[in-house]
Write a structure and sequence with these properties.
CATH class of the largest domain in chain A: Alpha Beta
GO molecular function (chains A, B, C): 2 iron, 2 sulfur cluster binding; biphenyl 2,3-dioxygenase activity; iron ion binding
Pfam families (chains A, B, C): Rieske (PF00355), Ring_hydroxyl_A (PF00848)
Shape of chain A: globular
Number of helices of chain A: 10
Radius of gyration of chain A: 22 Å
Cofactor (chains A, B, C): Fe cation
Largest sheet of chain A: 7 strands, antiparallel
Oligomer: homotrimer
Enzyme class (chains A, B, C): oxidoreductase
EC number (chains A, B, C): 1.14.12.18
């Protein structure tokens, strides 16, 4: 009996990155059915505070209701379909009022005012509430689910809440924010995040802080992929010069203060936990070849409250690194669109990408991929 | 026998506003077959004067011919298809000459010059005239019809010529013009024009001049929808401060001087007759979610001839109002594209919109609407 | 038996110019299967010099290899598909290195470095070379062929190498370059180039140098269309004032010094041989209604080496002429898109266009054209 040659694990076929139909399938599956991170609890400190978010082709209002809970609704008036809130954030006051004909909803979505509708035979206010979206929270992160009747968020997160309890994420407060428009498929962003084989090539500054082979991946879970990398000796955090202007987060043990945790919380939250701060990327697919990425930096309130608090050491380091990553991701998008592209071989340093690809295929039930 | 609950009249399904195929059907039906307003007789004061107009995906030349009549042609040379006139307006001289190879047509569309074609066997100049488009006029408004063999314009206009004779529209002259590019379906523009329920909410200045409940709609006709609104006591016209710098139009009686007539002359002329001026909007669908709107203000020659004539009181008032209307129309377009959109209930103050929707359905023979 | 009326030869139906599916068929047939000109040998003077070129939807690297030969490759890394060279030109050094994970190829396309791949079972470097593209040269012009197994370039060129030997094109060196983005189908560019009936109308300056009826077309060949036009008495070349700042090219006889040769070398090289310089246009279809045209001027090294060498007399003349041509080509594109467009009659001065149309139909096997 002849020996079978082993074959390397291969990247996905081109269709996953260039086919608009495939893109729609993925958005539908991962963004319209899964729990999707839309931001942080501290985005909505007071009653009536809202943010709007584009999730797939839908626009949502996420609002702090009268009872202090966070609610989410499709941003669509039930009268003539008008988008209710055009601003990215703000305060609604005690109710949401349509700018067109003043239909008014309370913060739980009930229609409470509809001028000149009382005389309409058969019209009952209670029949026309806002279309509600399920909301859940994890340690300060806000998630929504558009599927109607989802499994609980905890099922999607798996062991993450236990794993990251020490970081006390719920206590952290957002400081800086940079949004990027990247001409690459959303999965290329996640794949780029999930390996550091490219680090010595395109991130020499990063590689000086944390050796690219120092990473240890955890086994992939259905809802997340990730692992830790070690800081080099003498390096306090991922910053422009490797020092930190902040004390470590209070809950961390000595070992945790020597690592950075990098986790892709699928489908759209890249969670990077440093000894002294949290960085998040929200990944928003906009087209098969375009992704909006919103990067934010979050700090402990004690650090934020210090006179002269200055997060620029962390922000400038990662802004540079982000731009390097988006550039090569865009080059990948360009090359994969070629008829000369064939699935190529992954190295052992890219096993998490192979896990991610397998998860995509399994989730979509696509034994035969497109392309 | 059980009583049937009454149900409110509902807005159209989303497909009417977001489906590109539906858009093509509507352009074909309403703009390629109906009489479409392309401007005013006074756009073409002299022989050879022309304007070009984009009607649907077609570009037309409308020109004052040698016999003083107004003619219209597809803007396409019969030689190699070149667009003949690239300018939006101008004077052709006594003939229309192709800029590519100098094929030349007289102002009735006959080919009168074709260099180096005389030697071509079988070529006869009389076989290659410009493709002509039927033109008709109503009180200074110019209409074209692309259907080939249309019913007369008067059949489409119904009782409008009688109704508006007193305003003497043929005598008025165009003064100001503002073009708007609106990210909304063309029907949302017409619907917005056809109710004032939104006026107290988004046009507080307008509502101070003319109470939003002062309107009386006429029964809808196959070719137009409209009615009159009353000016409040002490208000002379729709202007920034409610006064007018012009006398009323000479033909109007005392009652007509107290109203503004608002008529949507389908498919594309919004005709707003004030005591002292005429405003017109031409509505040009460009895509399922984009409409060009050209607003113009027309005055009596006696007013225009006054030293220091200044129409800014009328123009600035309506420019502000227009922008408010386009903004909410764009918000409607955004909301209707959501999967959460469902047809919503009309109030009694929006009966004209229900009439318009019914007309759209009836004209298209679409018992089952898209979406 | 009745005589049959002769009928003029007619232009192509609209679909050839406005149908995106037809466009894809043409790009596939003419640009993915034929020899396509990508530039000049002197673009790559030294080993490692490269240019990148977009051919259809593909991006290629054309590089001077270690053995001095010119090679071409799809610009796609075999690892994860990254575009290798993002710059339009430069020098690779001795190898082509991927910017993402440093996979490295020698200039013959062999994979010579793949970090962390050695431990992957079944991985062999020799299995992952760059995808190579066939290259051939004609008198300094560089051609590529994407079909895999093409007939030799000479078969496509026919008698051109003999015909133009006297011009010594291989000796010429590129000087100036202007790129144009033209809103017209690529065939309209070729057709415009292939007749001078339009010259007295839109190029009065050109017509003063070379009478538009002075041209003599050669019989069309499968791979090229063209002919010569005579310079008027006293005119030395096609320049702003009809004089030349350069001596004639050394190999030309007295008769050749009185002509300009205009040949469309299909599918994409427009070759214009003047007594004292060569002009080339490369025609790059980008969409059914958009074409990039790169015009370059090439001179004899003796002229280029003169102190104060100034090619502006040739460049400014043709830049003006080019812009006039693109403008009418864009007007043709606009007119042909109309439903009023019908195939129109060619004159005897446009016989080369009829030959070109026939070639298009024959090559595509489209007896029944689209549209």
């Amino acid at each position: 009996m002849a020996a079978v040659d082993p074959t390397p694990a291969l990247t996905l076929p081109a269709g996953f990155y260039v086919d608009p139909d495939q893109f729609r399938v993925e958005v539908e599956h991962f963004f319209m059915r899964k729990w999707v991170c839309v931001g942080r609890v501290d985005d909505l400190p007071a009653r009536g505070d809202f943010v709007t978010r584009d999730v797939g082709v839908e626009n949502l209002i996420v609002v702090r209701a009268e009872d202090e809970s966070i609610r989410a609704f499709f941003n669509v008036c039930r009268h003539r379909g008008t988008r209710l809130c055009a601003d990215p954030s703000g305060n609604t006051g005690g109710s949401i009022r349509c700018p067109y004909h003043a239909w008014t909803y309370d913060l739980s979505g009930r229609l409470v005012g509809a001028p000149h509708m009382d005389a309409v035979p058969g019209f009952r206010q209670e029949d026309w509430p806002l279309a509600r979206v399920v909301v859940s929270e994890w340690d300060g992160h806000v998630f929504i689910n558009l599927s109607g009747d989802p499994a609980p968020l905890s099922a999607q997160l798996g062991d993450l809440p236990d794993r990251f309890r020490s970081w006390g994420m719920a206590d952290l407060r957002s400081s800086e924010r940079i949004a990027y428009d990247v001409a690459a498929n959303w999965k290329l962003i996640i794949q780029n995040y999930s390996e550091c084989l490219h680090c010595p090539v395109i991130h020499p500054a990063l590689n000086r802080l944390s050796h690219f082979l120092s990473g240890e991946n955890e086994p992939a879970a259905p809802g997340h992929l990730g692992g830790a990398m070690r800081l080099r000796d003498g390096i306090a955090s991922m910053t422009a010069d490797g020092t930190s202007r902040r004390p470590p987060l209070p809950g961390l043990g000595p070992e945790q203060r020597r690592t950075v945790q990098y986790y892709a919380v699928l489908p759209n939250l890249l969670l990077s936990l440093h000894p002294d701060y949290m960085m998040t990327h929200l990944v928003w697919p906009r087209a098969v070849d375009r992704t909006e990425v919103v990067c934010r930096w979050h700090f402990h309130p004690d650090a934020l409250g210090q006179p002269g608090f200055d997060p620029s050491d962390a922000v400038s380091f990662w802004d540079l690194t982000n731009r390097q990553d988006w550039h090569v991701s865009e080059l990948s998008q360009l090359g994969i669109a070629s008829r000369a592209y064939r699935p190529g071989p992954y190295s052992a340093r890219e096993s998490m990408l192979h896990d991610f690809d397998a998860l995509i295929l399994r989730e979509l039930g696509q034994a035969r991929p497109p392309g």
